[in-house]
Amino acid sequence: MYRKGEVSYQPLPLPDRVQVAPEVALAQARAFRDYMGKRHSVRAFSGRAVPREVIEAIVATAGSAPSGANHQPWHFAAISDPAMKAQIRAAAEEEERAFYSGGASDEWLAALEPIGTGVEKPHLTTAPWLLVIFAQRWGETEDGTRYKNYYVPESVGIATGFLIAAIHHAGLVCLEHTPNPMKFLAPLCGRPASEKPVMILPVGYPAEDATVPEVAKRKKPLSAILTTFE
């Protein structure tokens, strides 16, 4: 985390070591692969409550992610207030109506067809929590001096990956919703002009009748995503 005046390198001994034998590493890697393969983006949520402490632990995991120059250029707003969720849903559906009625190309709409998306976003009010992820475009010191953040999209993307993995590890589900533009989110959540909302994650338990699109289970084979040089 950036602090004015702290510009020298101070090394610490590696505080944690989790390394294991190669055969154990392989077993653990495969087990985690299989576990993450059970993660699904869900649009139908149960109204079952999720304790705030669970959300706090999940966000703390995201906050441990690496970032450019360790500036940690992110903020997370956790919303359970029904009135705020209703306001977010209304704004999101307004944007979706514009998107589906001419804002998107035919190619884009065709790509979305197998996913089953549409204008209605009931998950934004049904899910017990909404996590709004903000990217901090620049930071400010205690005296108001502005400083530059580095690799902001990459850093926030890594933190979001940590967040989604932590949600799954807690036995919950989420849905990735990218606000566009939904500029009202920053003032609604009391965030400064330096921050831009990049994603909303409804978080909770899946409904009893929850479904996922069949196409979502079609993942590229390892041979299509990995090139090895030995």
What's the tally of helices?
A: 8
Largest beta sheet: strand ordering: 1-2-6-5
Q: Secondary-structure element sequence?
A: HHEHHHEEEHEHEH
Stretches where pLDDT is under 50 for at least 5 consecutive residues are none
Determine the fraction of residues in helical runs and give it as a percent range.
25-40%
Q: Could you please say which CATH topology applies here?
A: NADH Oxidase
The CATH architecture name reads 3-Layer(aba) Sandwich
Main beta sheet strand tally, sense and closure: 4 strands, antiparallel
Radius of gyration: 20 Å
CATH superfamily: NADH Oxidase
Shape: globular
Organism: Pseudoroseicyclus tamaricis
GO molecular function: oxidoreductase activity
Keywords: Flavoprotein, FMN, Oxidoreductase
Pfam family, one: Nitroreductase
Protein model, in words:
This protein is an alpha+beta fold. The chain has one domain: NADH Oxidase, CATH 3.40.109.10. The chain has 8 helices and 6 strands. It has helices spanning 22-36, 52-62, 82-103, 106-112, 123-126, 152-169, 185-188, 222-225; strands at 74-79, 129-136, 138-140, 146-148, 173-174, 195-204. The strands form 2 sheets. It has a 4-stranded antiparallel beta sheet. Strand 3 (138-140) and strand 4 form a beta hairpin. Helix 2 packs across helix 6. The longest helix is centred in the middle third of the chain and has 22 residues, at 82-103. It is globular, with a radius of gyration of 20 Å. The mean pLDDT is 96.
